[in-house]
Structures are given as C-alpha cells and as structure tokens.
Write a structure and sequence with these properties.
7-stranded mixed sheet; Metallo-beta-lactamase, Chain A; alpha/beta; single chain; globular
C-alpha cells in the first residue's frame, strides 16, 4: 500500500489565524498543517486501478486533492462526526462527475446519523437538489471487520473524550486519530503493525487527545515498526520537536508518503 498524509493538523489548522507563534510563522513547509486526513492506495484492484481509500473528508479536502493530484476515490472511512473530519464531503461531487460513479462511505451508527443531519440535502428526498449533490452510498458499520471492494478493514474503537471514535487497520497499517484512551481489548487488533499513525496533540495534557508523552507510551506498547504522530497543534515546531522523540517515532507532516 501507498499512504499519503493529506493533513496532520488540529481542527484549526496551522498556521492559526492571527497567531504569531514560532510554528505559525515558521517558513518550514512541515509546520503548515491542514486538517487531518490520509489517502491510501491499496494493492487491491478495482476497474483495473488500485483501490483508493480516503479516511475522513476534512474541511480542506478540495485543497488536499489539488495539492496531491488526487482525482479518484472509491471509498471514504469516517472516524467520527466532528466538523474537522466530515465537512469536506460535498467536494466528493467532482469525483462523481469525473468518473460517473458513486463513492462508498463507511461510518459507525452515531457518525452515520450525524452525517445525515449535517448533510441533509444529500440524504433527504424532499430537499431541493439544485446545484448538484454528492452521489454516495452511506454504509453503517460496527466493530466487525468489513470488506471494501475486496480489501479487509478492521475497525478499532477508542475514546476521544466522551466520543466513541473508530480507527482503522488495513493490512499492516493502522490509523488512530483523535484519541485519549484505547481499551485493552482493542490493543490485540494492533499487534504486528509495520506502520502506525496516532494522535499526539501537544506537550500539555488535554482532556480529549493524547499528549506527546502519552502518545509515546501508547505507541511503545503497540510496538509498530514505525510510528507517526498526527493532529498536532501549533505547540509542535516540527524540526525542534522531532529530535525529542524515541527511535522509530516521528511527527508526520502534510505530504508525507510511505509504502507498507
């Protein structure tokens, strides 16, 4: 698989409007962070092309497609319903128009319900459709492994404060954004990973996200061959912070690409 980090920033993105801190004024491209999302090209084949899976449609989804030259998506896996993870859904329309197909969406019960509320014009048959709408199939999932065009996906459930969030394991790769507690039962699903991407908001503790130290502790327990931190605030200045992490753990950045 080929994975591209489309966004590695917190809900406000980096730079934050009006902020003059070192990260927000940095000239290093690795300190410019769009809202979190990853794009996965698997070794499964659909219509003679690699299966393309997106995790979350951030508010920056259109920009992320343009920057990374993404012109086709087969499926979207949603982690949860917070605005910085769903608000770009409308931009699926261009994929529909380019390829004349629907895009499959996968979400747990609560997230599917909230998506239908937020984007009622897509799902309500009585709503005026002028201007076009995304053509999607919204599939409700639970913790059972499921199939996306022949690709097995394993959900991992954890806490983001009071919110239940789904991370996903695909092959030897797992993505766990927006978390501050992982139940012991879910760690068994994360054995033998080659690459892990996991939430690490900032150095200070936070009530709904792992701090950097907490993320290090959890990452060492999971024991992936390589771990990347994501969903960082402007507390993290990339080059300065990177030298403080244990071997095998790094901060992700927008545009980071690797193969698993």
């Amino acid at each position: 698989m080929k994975i591209t980090v489309l966004g590695s920033g917190t809900s406000q993105g980096i730079p934050i409007v009006g902020c003059r801190c070192p990260a927000c004024t940095s000239l290093n491209p690795k300190d410019k962070r769009l809202r979190v999302s990853v794009f996965i090209e698997t070794d499964s084949i659909i219509n003679n092309k690699p299966l393309r899976i997106l995790i979350d449609t951030s508010p920056d989804f259109r920009q992320q497609m343009l920057v990374n030259n993404i012109t086709d998506i087969d499926a979207v896996l949603y982690t949860h319903y917070h605005i910085d993870h769903i608000m770009g859904l409308d931009d699926i329309r261009q994929i529909n128009q380019l390829h004349r197909k629907k895009v499959e969406l996968f979400a747990n019960k609560e997230t599917a319900y909230r998506i239908k509320q937020t984007f009622s014009y897509i799902f309500d048959e009585n709503t005026y459709k002028g201007g076009g709408i995304p053509h999607v199939n919204l599939n409700e999932i639970d913790l059972s492994p499921f199939d996306v065009f022949g690709q097995k996906v394993i959900p991992i459930e954890y806490k983001h404060g009071p919110t239940n969030v789904y991370g996903y394991r695909i092959g030897d790769f797992a993505y766990l954004t927006d978390c501050n507690f992982i139940p012991d039962t879910e760690f068994t699903k994360l054995k033998g990973l080659k690459v892990l991407i996991i939430d690490a908001l900032r150095y200070r503790r936070h009530e709904t996200h792992f701090s950097v130290d907490e993320a290090v502790e959890v990452s060492l327990r999971i024991g992936a061959e390589k771990t990347y931190f994501t969903h960082m605030t402007h507390d993290i200045v990339h080059d300065e912070a990177s030298g403080k992490l244990p071997a095998g753990i790094e901060f992700a950045y927008d545009g980071l690409t690797f193969e698993v």
